[in-house]
Amino acid sequence: MPDAVRIARDNGVVGAGGAGFPTHVKLRAEADTLVVNAAECEPLLYKDQEILENFLDPFVEGAQLAAQAVGASRVLVGVKEKHVRLIERMRDELPDGMEVRPLRDTYPSGDEFILVYDLTGRAVPRAGIPPDVGVVCCNVETLLNLGLEKPVTEKFVTVSGAVPETITFRAPVGASYRDVLRAAGAPLDGMGFVVGGPMMGSVETDLERPVTKTCAGILVLPEDHSLLARKARSTQSVHKIAYSCDQCMRCSDLCPRDLLGHDVKPHKAMISLTLSPDAAQAWQQSALYCCECALCTLYACPEDLDPFRVMVESKRALRERGVRPLKADAEPAPMYSYRRTPTALLVRRLGLEPYLSPHRYAEVAVAPRRLTLPLSQHLGAPAAAVVEKGQRVRAGQLVGEIPEGALGSRIFTPLDGTVARVGRDAVVVEVA
Ligand code: SF4
Ligand code: SF4
């Protein structure tokens, strides 16, 4: 077993960019190129940039371990071109075989397929994965965790929006959102919260829920901000307004996966709502290839409709009927470069311009009294608890193991404490 695979498995490393795919499985692939995702295309998140600024050496160690494991002869790090000083520094300091490549400031430049095409010119097939074109793609925080060679017990999070200061810091996995917001000095009264980025994140009303290994940040907004209302629409309301779709096709024209040649047509899913079930199924097919970036709803649609939600529903309905994605070669559209969505325009459309402010990395003391450690913070099977109620645990101790033969990841406690509850969903630790 290559070192990187063992280190990733032993320490519970998963994709930190959002999906939570177990890294020890991803690193079993073969590829000639390792692509590092530091694009951070979601507005108002800064953790990837801060990791490269403040933890470059352990990140490089992790990237080298990963490249060795998959057999890659080169490592390409995608960083937005606007980070001029960071790119210059990385050009000076990265070792041979590692190269920083500037990316345009567009959304969603961090989509794995878009990133692979932008950095290598190789188009991942529809319903394919990057190793199909000789690439393994990892998030910068994932590789940092690999390079640190210790149990993953902390998560880099950015707290931004209507806050006194935008900061990125490390929070213990299992701490509540309330703990994190308090530590950041964020206001709570009269506010709404989006966990993750403004595009792909979700509105959260339960601040007792825990930070996981895939949480990228919390966006704080006044509770009457239009983004909160748009993201919290009921399914009934999404369907009701869908009938006013005039089939202008702007959602499909700007869809990044359609531009990549994956034949994703949200305007067809919209009209499917008016068709009989059989006809609807035919019109919804392309939803299987949607990456759920939400650009069609939050930027493209001039009528303020919700093609993204219709695509997500269509995808679920198709899967329930047993319809599977069909793999096919992709040919990016001639308009690929010209129809990219500039982040600055997106920020304006989202009403987030007032919250673009200086940001920094900080060592912040998050002091939870209780940790909720979900046993499923990753793709695959939930971890199996290996502790009992009343047991004393030490920081870094294993509390959840990968079930025999399953795809999964290990879970550790970040702090000393006593196990207060062992459930099917989570292990709860009262901090000592
Ligand atoms: S952009 Fe809006 S109005 Fe135009 S086709 Fe798409 S959903 Fe319909
Ligand atoms: S969410 Fe909309 S824009 Fe994004 S991939 Fe899906 S259909 Fe395309």
Q: How large is the radius of gyration?
A: 21 Å
What is CATH's topology name of the largest domain? Rossmann fold
Write out the distinct hetero groups bound to the structure: iron/sulfur cluster
Overall mean pLDDT score? 95
Proportion of strand residues: 15-25%
Q: If you had to describe this structure to a student in words, what would you say it looks like?
A:
It is a single chain. Helix 4 packs across helix 7. The protein has 17 helices and 19 strands. It folds into 4 domains: 146 residues, 3-Layer(aba) Sandwich (Rossmann fold), CATH 3.40.50; 90 residues, Ubiquitin-like (UB roll), CATH 3.10.20; 106 residues, no CATH class; 64 residues, RNA polymerase II/Efflux pump adaptor protein, barrel-sandwich hybrid domain (OB fold (Dihydrolipoamide Acetyltransferase, E2P), Beta Barrel), CATH 2.40.50.100. The protein is 32% helix and 20% strand. The strands form 5 sheets. Strands 9-8-10-6-7-12 form a 6-stranded mixed sheet, with helices on both faces. The chain has a 4-stranded parallel sheet with strand order 3-2-1-5, sandwiched between helices. A hairpin with a 3-residue loop joins strand 18 and strand 19. By secondary structure, it is α/β, with parallel strands linked by helices. The longest helix is centred in the N-terminal third of the chain and has 15 residues. The model has no long low-confidence stretch (mean pLDDT 95). The protein binds iron/sulfur cluster (2 copies). The site of one iron/sulfur cluster has 15 residues, from helix 12, helix 15 and helix 16.
